[in-house]
TrEMBL record:
It holds the Pfam family V-set. SUPFAM superfamilies: Immunoglobulin. The keyword Transmembrane helix does not apply. Gene3D superfamilies: Immunoglobulins. This is Immunoglobulin domain-containing protein. It comes from the Eukaryota. GO terms for cellular component: membrane. It is found in: Membrane.
Amino acid sequence: MSDAADAVTGITGGSVIINCAYDLKNVKTRDSAKSFCKMLGSECTMVTEVKNDLWIPEERFSMIDDKSLGLVSVLIRNLTVNDSGTYRCKADSTWFQEVKFNVEQ
């Protein structure tokens, strides 16, 4: 887990890829199902997830886990200002990276 949240900016109507890196040496993290959630108050509401290294397409969100690089990538399409907020990349029940995301018009 990084100490400070990464900052990412997107533009309304556009797309963005958010990358979350994890430690390949941590076997539990590497082998766990990954998910991406948005913080709403003290709760983190799941947006999308990936299992078995396959894309799980959602309407606007897609996610893939490259275990050879230790990198989870989340694609968000058709951005809206409502997508702005704090997100977390999670492995199993623990989070390993936080991203502050802002969508500009």
